[in-house]
Each structure stands twice: as C-alpha cells, then as structure tokens.
Amino acid sequence: MLDQVGGVEAHEIDAAEVAQRMPLLAGYSGPAVLDESGGAIRTRAAITALTGALADAVTTGEVISIDPRADGTVEVRSVTDRAVYSKVVVCAGRETARLARSVGLSLPVRLAAHVRLTFEVKAAAPARVACLQDSSGVFGEVGVYATPLPGNSNYSVGLSDTVGVRDDGTFIDPAAIRSLDERAREYVTRALPGLHPEPRDFLHCWVTDLPWSEDGVAVWEAGSVLFVAGHNLFKQAPALGRALARAATGGGLRAELTPEARLGEAQS
Length: 268
Description:
Number of domains: 2
Helix content: 10-25%
CATH superfamily of the largest domain: D-Amino Acid Oxidase, subunit A, domain 2
Shape: elongated
Strand content: 25-35%
Order of helices and strands: EHEHEEEEHEEEEEHEEEH
Distance between the termini: 14 Å
Largest sheet: 6 strands, antiparallel
Radius of gyration: 21 Å
Oligomer: single chain
Number of helices: 5
C-alpha cells in the first residue's frame, strides 16, 4: 500500500473530497486514494531547461552505428558526423535494441504502442485538478490514466492497454490503435462530463518495456557502452541520470541496475 511507503503522502479520501479534487469527474463513491505529493511531470519544461543550461554541448543527429574499438574507445557515426568517445550511454527508446544488436547484445525489449487524447475543459479551468488513475471499472475501463496540462484548461486521457508492434515499428493490427482511441473517447463521455467529448489533440507513444515488469529498468554493459532499457524512463530521470553519469565517469554501475537485478519486478 502507498500509505506504508516512507515519504509518500497517500491516504484514502471520501466521495466529497474526490469531487473537490476532481471537479471534472462524474459522481463516484467508491474507494479512492490521494497522493498529496504526486502530479504531472512537465517533461517539456525539464528538457527545455536542461538543453538551455547545456547550450552548445548538446548536438542532435540520427545515430547509425556504434563501434567499440580495440583501445577501449567507441566510435559513433551519425548521418552527418563521426566521433570517438571514451564512454557511450545509449538511451534511445525503441532504437536501443537495434543499436545493441550492432555490438552483439540482444535486449529483451518488448515493443508496443498506445495513444493519449487531449480534451478541452467545458467550463472555466479549475484552479486545481488532480491527475487520475482509474482501475475501478465503474466507468467501463480498468486501466485509465489522465493528467491536466499547464493552465488546467485541457486534460489528457489514455488507456493502459497497448497494441502490438513488429520490430520494424509497424502495427500488427492497424485497427487496434483506433479501438483504443474510441474507448478513450467513450470513457470520457461516461466518466469525465467536465470535458468536451471530442479530442483536441492526439499523442501516439512507443512502449518499450521489459519482460519482468512494465516498470522494469535495466542497463546492459558492452565494454565502454551502456545500454539503458525500460518503459517510462523519464519518470526515473533524476536518479537514473545520476547513476548513469557515475557509471560513465568511472564510478561503476550500481548493482540494482544490472539486468540480473530485474529492477521493478513485483515482490511476492
């Protein structure tokens, strides 16, 4: 239970507080938990701040090959450049497994996709509105997550279900993603009457999880190259970034990040 985890301010709330915290939600009187310190992660703001601080140290380009050399360095080739580094950290989403294969590693990354829809708030934007994780089934779905956008005049809603994807990124069943889209709209109609039922924006996301958990994280080492795999890694970015920086600068990889540790696996 969340209320048994140190430092997490989570507790059960009643129907009146649910309505106060979630004014966009239809009437609900079932069990509910509020995490006081939880909330939306502003990834765009974080990325903008980091890239601004690093300035010209950040370069972009599509990496096409990673080649460990006999002297322990690593040659990296992009579409427009070639460079040699003492250490390389690869955290490339669905491309990580492809790049790992070039150095003889086979990562057990499971590729899938899902969709998140953004809806406009009907009335004036609430001053405060909570994020939502709904596993109740009361409104017809058992795996829904939703979050307000800055300003609270828009709310994004997605289902936890995913659709299968081949290794080359093509959908196994193209109609399946449309089904997730339709189910999300139907959920909004039933559960979130404070939103306009027609979505304003769509966001299609890749899912790159590991076999032992959808929240699993692991780092594989191949000489001077580290390959980071898992889903929703941005949620662990502060701790993960520090651990990877330590490993890349000679401090060694923390034991809990090795594949053998199976970080994120549910404990029985």
